[in-house]
Amino acid sequence: MADKKADLAGPGIGTYEEVESILPTDYHSLLNPKDTQKAIFAVKNYIEQNLCRELNLMMVQVPLIVDVESGVNDLLDRDGSRTPIQFHISNDYNKHPIDAQIVQAATKWKRVALKQFGLKPSEGICTDMRAVRKDYFLDHDHSAYVDQWDWEKAITADQRNLDYLKDMVRKIWKVIKGAEVFAEEMFPQLKSEYPSLPDKLTFLHAEEILEKFPDMPRKQRETAILQEFPAVFIIGIGWTLKDGYPHELRAADYDDWVTETRSGDGRPMHGLNGDILVWNPVTKRRHELSSMGIRVNAETLRRQLEITRQLDFLKLPYHQGIINGDLPLSIGGGIGQSRVQMLLLKKAHLGEVSVTVWPKILKEICAKKNIHVIE
Fold first, then answer.
1. Which residues are identified as catalytic?
2. Which pLDDT tens digit goes with each residue over 348-375?
3. Any idea of the CA torsion for 78, 79, 84, 90, to the nearest 10 degrees?
4. 0.85 cut: is pTM over it?
């Protein structure tokens, strides 16, 4: 049996020998560099406009740096394996300094922003978020530079259920599928070699996928299920499954992964969150596009922090805002911009649609396979 524990956190493939072995050998870009840039910004505008329309969101500014003391930075996992970049601002000759961090995601900040901007239930925000995640292994679809459409929407207590979550997922999928059609109309050559995305995605609980593939670790299970369903939303990420492991580690202070739900056939499951994954026909690999969920309320925040032994977080302003009911109930998520562009523009590497740093060894591997990252 493969090592399930090693597969719970820490993204990326692992070694550059493996990266070289999995990158396509017969790749050629369907768009030249100039048309790629035109397509990136056309698709970006399409998705932002239609996300706002479908989910009733408004575009807002979003921070790149936050005060450490605020507690709003995203720790991503709960094992401490991915930590933010922190630095000291010696303001006013250190008389009024600030210890700051570069955001890893705007997950918690967005919930505070709902209150700050005075948004009511059914209203939400969308951000053009940029972040740095220094602890990633840099491969074909993981970068230290992160760009996401980070969105958040205020909801009511009776909307904290699986049906509402699925409704939001369907709306997001409608936008992604529409963006594919839009890109293919703009550049017909994108339709020439690879299959289109399905009109609908399939909803599956993490527990159901484990039952189908009990001996596989998480990434292998996802790869296997995508052979059967090329686009899925995996529900319940963070809750410990029957094999003693969660599908994947998930931070305890934003998504709700403890609330009991029911599977399609009525069995008890857990979690009001999940990920959108697709099969990427260019890389011939699993491809995650979005992570999202209904956010914790006061009760589930405390329960999850007890499970993760992080109750000391409750002293932070963000967590106090949830416990005291000062922050609105919400649903939200992040949609990877470069991940989506890579998929829709039929690219083999994130570096073809975004500009960041890559190690020399990876650039050399890519060049041998006719993959040219933007310098």
1. 74, 133, 148, 275, 288, 291
2. 999 999 999 999 999 999 999 999 999 8
3. 100
4. yes
